[in-house]
């Protein structure tokens, strides 16, 4: 009997073959729920991968959740179940009812759903994302030639639900995607950020997970609106020259009954062996990176956000937990690889495949690793043994920096190397210096409350710390609220304390942070040689007794270079002499003693002529009245 010809939207032999090979990069166009016309009538085509299911039916508002109404047909060889339902319409809720080999019935959300019911509901929602409105063609064209190595990257890390809220509403008061887009764009342009990194976008059930326990890898969360609203936000940010990065979590997923765990009654998406497939500390499941269909599910998700929703990059969460088989485990709780080591060889190959495909297909996009160990070549090329990421969070710098900043200034001289050590490995990877949400939760204190002292001293400490960060090699990331010295730790359950900007100290710190970011974007010396030792030069890395650091950032053309001098003690240094490489004029372009930053506003020259007088091993020098906790940046 001749096989019936497949319609274009249906799962065909080639789809099965590519999915089984892990290379069906647009599988999201076939699996899931899609509005179609079969030539006779309109309806929805449903398709779900459930290889070990005994039977599957689709249930929803279109059939009164009747498990008998719309049984699905099994397609071999992979066990993909499909059906066409003419009664199904856009915005209707649905789930898959999976009968297991044991005769149990599981009610699962669609892993490839493009929209979900608002929590605490757990159903998927039929959506049509085939004709989203885009007017960001100029941005997308420019992205094709954009190079993260030699361009400014200053990232504003944000969580939509706790950035701002509408007061007095019976619901959560969240800003929707459109409202957030307009408001955050104004703020970011005022402050000088280049990119926004958004937490908690892929659908997730529990607010307290912050979006790091995902159930909908192909759906923007319904907390803030529809898929169309999400696309509007990305488009709006692009139209205002702001790049969009999303947090993306291929490391693990929650056990929620409606989610991916034991999807067809067996470990479908996760490793079957609990020593591989479960996180003891987190209580979550771990993807089986050796299974081709699971690789395809994840790589397809990454491509979906970047290609379909025009997202400019993904920050990949918890990379270390994927790379190490013994991550968070005691002896006896993990299985060595075939060579007896603790490296997850399947995860390594997954990352190489992921990054090669995503970056190969999307020039100018970025893949960022949150990797907390010294694993080599995270940003190295896969063909050279690397993992292929564009950039890596510099967790070592972050740890040393925050530990140093917590110290009473009297004791900083004993830990001087904590601020200089990162420069010894600054070029081993393409780094981002991060002060993220992880540093301002779980009793770690906000950035301002990490600082020693009281009142003015706290703010002065944070200003000099931020200036040092901005001058140090590496791209930049700062979590929301820390640019105006949020006092309380971050909580997803409330908005930021914006009222603090009515207080002088907070406004002055915001002014200073704003001008640091503007300085960063304006001066090529701050970013275009981030990946090269030619871009950074210590002037004096050894002035430990006075806890002063001075260094130079060089531009490619060696013009408009910048000299930084940072004083980390409350002791003013009149006539502080700094060595410089040239006998020319040095222009003061940022001075923390300005009144708008909370300084004394002492009058001082704007230009300084370096004379022939050796200092700091340089043939020329000039003197500058360096205030307590003072920062001075000079252009030459």
Oligomer: single chain
Query: Structural class, from secondary structure content?
Result: alpha/beta
Q: Looking across the biggest beta sheet, what order are the strands in?
A: 9-10-13-16-17-18-19-20
N- to C-terminal distance: 82 Å
Return the average pLDDT rounded to an integer: 97
Task: Give me the Rg, rounded.
Answer: 27 Å
Largest sheet: 8 strands, parallel, barrel
How many strands in all?
29
Helical content stands at 10-25%
- SS element count, helices: 15
Principal-axes geometry comes out as elongated
Which stretches are low in confidence, meaning pLDDT under 50 for 5 or more residues running? none
Strand content: 15-25%
Q: What would you note in describing this structure?
A:
It is built from 15 helices and 29 strands. The chain is elongated and about 90 Å long. It is α/β, with parallel strands linked by helices and 636 residues long. The model has no long low-confidence stretch (mean pLDDT 97). The strands form seven sheets. Strands 9-10-13-16-17-18-19-20 form an eight-stranded parallel β-barrel, surrounded by five helices.
List the helices and strands and how they pair.
Elements lengths: L12 H9 L10 E6 L4 E8 L5 E6 L12 E3 L4 E6 L7 E7 L5 E4 L15 E2 L11 H7 L10 E5 L1 H4 L13 H15 L3 E4 L3 E2 L12 E5 L6 H13 L3 E6 L25 H4 E2 L4 E2 L6 H17 L4 E4 L2 H5 L21 H17 L4 E4 L21 E3 L1 H12 L2 H4 L4 H4 L10 E5 L11 H4 L5 H16 L3 E5 L24 H19 L13 E8 L4 E6 L8 E6 L5 E8 L4 E7 L15 E3 L1 E5 L2 E9 L4 E5 L1
Parallel strand pairs: 9-10, 9-20, 10-13, 13-16, 16-17, 17-18, 18-19, 19-20
Antiparallel strand pairs: 1-2, 2-5, 3-6, 4-5, 6-7, 6-8, 11-12, 14-15, 21-22, 22-23, 23-29, 24-28, 25-26, 25-29, 27-28
Helix pairs in contact: 4-5, 7-9, 14-15
